[in-house]
Structure formats: structure tokens, C-alpha cells
Amino acid sequence: MIAMNSRTGKEVANxxxxxxxxxxxxxxxxxxxxxxxxxxxxxxxxxxYQQKDADHYETIGKIxxxxxxxx
Length: 71
Fold this sequence. Notes:
Elements: E1 2-4, E2 11-14, E3 25-27, E4 32-36, E5 46-53, E6 56-63
Antiparallel strand pairs: 1-2, 3-4, 4-5, 5-6
């Protein structure tokens, strides 16, 4: 994940991710990004990142949510 300053175009963070991200969500209330992954060794995991402030981010981790049956 790359975070950039929208005014200057400067890269402010470059966090590790994997190929095959299925989307991205941001919860502004708690400043967290989540990326579900659907490829390679990380199938089914959700990668989570925390925004500390406008220029600082950290990797929280990789979470394997409980399986849900398909109907």
C-alpha cells in the first residue's frame, strides 16, 4: 500500500501488501484500512493497516477471519 500526499504528490508511506487484493476499505472512525486477499499463499486473509496521522501508517497484521458457509 502506498500513501501519498494529495497536495504535493509525495509518497509518505509504503507498506507491504501481496498480489491479488480483492478490494480495500477504510474506516475513518478508527483510521484503519483493510485489504482482503484472494491469491497465492494468503487466500482468505485480511491485511490490516492503521493510520497514525496524515503521514504515518503501520501494519497491524494479517488476519484469517472465521470461515462462513456459502448458501
